[in-house]
Design a protein that fits this description.
570 residues; alpha+beta; Fructose-1,6-Bisphosphatase, Chain A, domain 1; 3 domains; two-stranded antiparallel ribbon; 26 helices; 15 strands; globular; binds zinc ion
Amino acid sequence: MMIDGYELNLSQEELDDIFAHKLRQIELITPEFEDYKNLPENEKKVVAHLVKAAKIMNDVSLEQDHPLNRRLKKALEKEADKSSHAAKALRLFNCFNGVAGLNGLDPEPIQIFKGVKVLTGRNFYPSDLSVEEFQTIIKKMLQEGKIDAVKNILSARTMVRRKGAELEGIDYTQYFAKEFSAIANELEVAAHYTSDEAFKDYLGWQAQALIQNNEDMDMLADKHWAVLQDSPIEFTISRENYDDEMTPTVCENPELKAMLDNFGIEVNSKDMLGVRVGIVNKKGTDLLLTFKEQMKNLAGLMPYADKYKQNITAGNDLKQTMVDVDLIALKGDYAQCRGGITTAQNLPNDDKLSIKTGGGRRNVYHRQVRMSQDKERTKKLLNALVSSNLHGYYNPEAEHIFVIGHENGHSLGPDSSYKNSLGVYKHTIEENKADVVSIAMMPQYVKAGIIDEKTLKEVYTTWIVRIFLKAKPQLIQPHRMGDLMHFNYLLEHGAISFNSENKLEINFAKLPEVMNKILAETIEVQLSKSAQKAKEFIDKYTEWKDIHAYIAKTLQEIGIKPYIEIREYF
Ligand SMILES: [Zn+2]
């Protein structure tokens, strides 16, 4: 079937099979949710306007992600009433929040339309721009002294388009002027209604940041956002740069990299935008804060702690807020479910001006995402791949504790100047680090009396089962690459093994020592500032062995639900 000149790539039968057997649904809260019903009327109005803002931002992310997204989504919506095939294709489009995406299982992205592929530079760059041409143009522009123009092209907040034989970076506030101004209006109305002063303040700054071509405004908005600890309503504009594979290629070209360094030009991948709306859960948030109290202690225990400036030092307060949130809306980047969905997110990232100028971070945990567990599948998985003496230690709540440690782990270790030097490998190394910090430091939480010995074993076991991979990961999946790295590391150093029945055994006594070793090696890589060292480290521990193929095959037989559908009610 043709949709606006493009043929659908999946048959009705294939789409039916996806929805019947391969789809996991995340149910966000409804208007009947107790904490929502208990909100004062004015705060309910705030929520309504924030949800409107979220929906507008979704259009922005569609445009950033693929040049055909908006056009083909509209065409699918038009056909969906008349054609069940189009309706099903639209449903898959909404799972990806785009025309194509990885499902976390197949090595190549799934395409909803024949020939409509994921692009290296997404729609941040012209679709016909190759990596080679991109580098040639940048080099030429530098030779001609067009420093500011190149800065704009390599900025996190520009859409890049052709301008004659050159390229031009157009600031998001210009390219998306219509959408940003509509979002700013919604935020200003929400700010008017809310009676939470700190939140009102933030919304005002954020609205301004959306209408001014000025990175300082983002910095100020971020700083006001990052301190929100006690506000009852959650609203975030996320700006993360994992999707753009074009920009970082300039760092792989040594000659170009040297020229950029020489001119002091920073290279930042493009920010994909998203919006999250929710209500802060008090009980969950209290638990997070007990973990936070340990951060200063942990900073002192990090390997090579004296070799770099700590984010957290004994004298300073940790500039980190954290909340557990019941979710109302996930839009834009958050809704691009392409093989995974985020359970927690700590922003701003290191490349942002607010962090570089001493601002704090805010970490938000996604309750509805982590609570969507498939118990029956877990049981099958344990029976197939885990020694029976460990089954009692598998506990999804322990996974939440691991995730808290992971998120806190991002705040420990060398700063962004080290991390960014690792080029295309920085995300894999950083995600590996955060995982490794979480597990290596877990015994400290026992010492502090926050968790007990049994919970520690539950965290270990649940984490290791969690890093069983269902397919060979690629560099664009930094979390999964990290999983493969520490899995191989544990295996090679005897902390885990597989018995004669190919079932997992854990050497609990050996685990802490091995985790400290991989943590030290990871920090060494970051301190080296060498992309080559990072590559060697990753290559050494990402070998896809027989045991991985066996685990992946077994997981696939158990039945994997690689597609994710977010169900929203506001
Ligand atoms: Zn992370």
